[in-house]
Design brief:
3-stranded antiparallel β-sheet; two-stranded antiparallel ribbon; magnesium; dimethylallyltranstransferase activity; transferase; FPS1-like; Polyprenyl_synt
């Protein structure tokens, strides 16, 4: 059903498709502009949908102990006789993954997207478990990138607590290696749980591609651009979708590999990414 619905969008001319998608937002903007002219405070009530993510949140949190144990056993397979090493990497995982749900949005929304896209007839416990694992994989890739980013930015806090590399028993050198531990752990989970899935290669490739491009794009995070370079910065944003990997993974996990559907997802996610990532501040464009 989803395939047919999205194909219906594809048959609409692009200009009409864009107009249809954003007509409601444009109407709201027109009303707000009129209200501003009349010095009337805009009414922002009822513009946000309330999403019930209790199922996804509980599923992600309840899966963590199993994920934690699997990661330790897999990556320390040749170091079982070093209990101190096990404690250290357990601390690493807990520091970056055992978090308040508000910091687990990537994992939670991965599961939410899959539940919306998958056929109800195959939403069984086994397939849902794959979604939970894939959600954690996205969070681990994100944690790996953030760990490196905190080092580059000399950041002091993350998740309302000291950054990993600033802890006395860690330091920058070990933290760099720990970022790799998180990344490889995510890839191991994908191979362990999704190797028999028909879209496993596409899932892994899309996640690795996103990770690689985002890593390269971090160079731009350390720079500022002048107003005349705003187009250059927007081109960078095209490779910095914070939500596209989640949607593509959910599509592939639901066995939806139609290129035209993925193209629509990329277009929508790009516009969201640009809106989220760019803001103007005192004549320069900076990354948030």
């Amino acid at each position: 059903m989803l395939r047919n619905i999205l194909k219906g969008f594809i048959n609409v001319p692009k200009s009409e498709f864009n107009l249809a998608r954003f007509s409601s937002f444009r109407t709201l903007n027109q009303k707000e502009n009129q209200q501003q002219k009349e010095n009337v405070r805009p009414n922002y009530e009822n513009r946000q949908r309330n999403l019930d993510l209790a199922f996804e949140t509980n599923a992600i949190l309840s899966t963590y102990p199993e994920i934690h144990e699997e990661l330790i056993n897999e990556q320390l397979i040749y170091h079982q006789n070093y209990p101190d090493l096990k404690l250290r990497f357990s601390k690493l995982l807990d520091h970056h993954l055992k978090l308040d749900p508000k910091y687990l949005a990537r994992a939670i929304f991965m599961v939410h997207a899959y539940r919306l896209l998958e056929k109800p007839s195959v939403l069984n416990q086994s397939n849902l478990k794959n979604a939970y694992v894939l959600g954690w994989c996205h969070k681990m890739h994100d944690a790996s990138l953030l760990l490196d980013d905190d080092i580059a930015d000399a950041a002091d806090t993350r998740y309302n607590k000291p950054t990993w590399h600033t802890l006395p028993d860690v330091g920058v050198n070990q933290a760099i290696l720990d970022a790799a531990f998180l990344e490889t752990g995510a890839n191991i989970l994908i191979l362990n749980h999704l190797s028999s899935h028909p879209q496993c290669i596409n899932i892994l490739k899309s996640i690795l591609k996103s990770f690689s491009i985002t890593n390269v794009a971090q160079i731009f995070e350390l720079q500022q651009f002048k107003m005349e370079e705003v187009e250059k910065y927007q081109n960078f944003i095209k490779f910095y979708h914070y939500n596209l990997p989640l949607i593509k993974s959910a599509l592939y996990l639901a066995n939806i590999d139609d290129e035209s559907i993925h193209a629509i997802a990329e277009e929508i996610c790009l516009e969201i990414a640009v809106f989220h990532k760019i803001h103007l501040s005192q004549g320069s464009v900076v990354a948030t």
